Amino acid sequence: ARAGALSSYNPSYFDALPDDVAWTEQERLVERASRLWASGDLAPLADVDDALAAIDKRNPLYDAATRLRAHWRVNSGDVARAKEAIALMDGLLVRHRATRNYLLRVAAAVAAGERDVAWPGIQHIAAGGGLRSPNIARSLYRMVRTLGIPPEDMKPVASSVARAARAAREAR
Questions:
Q1: pLDDT tens digits for range 146-172
Q2: pTM of the model
Q3: Distance from C-alpha of 99 to C-alpha of 103, rounded to nearest angstrom
Q4: Cα–Cα dist 45/53, whole Å
Q5: Residue 27 in contact with residue 14, Cβ under 8 Å?
Q6: Are 27 and 2 in contact (CB under 8 A)?
Q7: How many of the other CB atoms lie within 10 Å of CB of 30?
Q8: Neighbours of 108 (CB within 10 A)
């Protein structure tokens, strides 16, 4: 149960917990790393990457640890690191085909300049109903704008994303 709570990290939930919770070492690691991610302070995640990578695939914390490892790479400004994040997310998507995993893979592809990876991912999320979420629509729109002019076959996808992001903005 705690691995699930860590996977869907909510700072207010963890702040309300008593100090004497008997966390395992790996739970504490993922909790600390999640706090860094939630604060937007991603650079220190690189310092705990090896420890996060040591979390075994059979451990319920593995998915959260892998997403944290991908997040700092995506936001590092380093194309090679962003490509590593694509590979991390590919491995995670084999296990868990969640929209947030696809979204992080697309973000990695955008950061890596891998348009041929990013556009099909955007299309997949849009076709799968992801545009119903205002947050996802806005995130995808930022990525579409970063990518620039879409390939001809992706222009309808880019238009759908733009419409969904506009609707999300107007609904605020």
A1: 999 999 999 999 999 999 999 998 987
A2: 0.89
A3: 6
A4: 11
A5: no
A6: yes
A7: 26
A8: 28
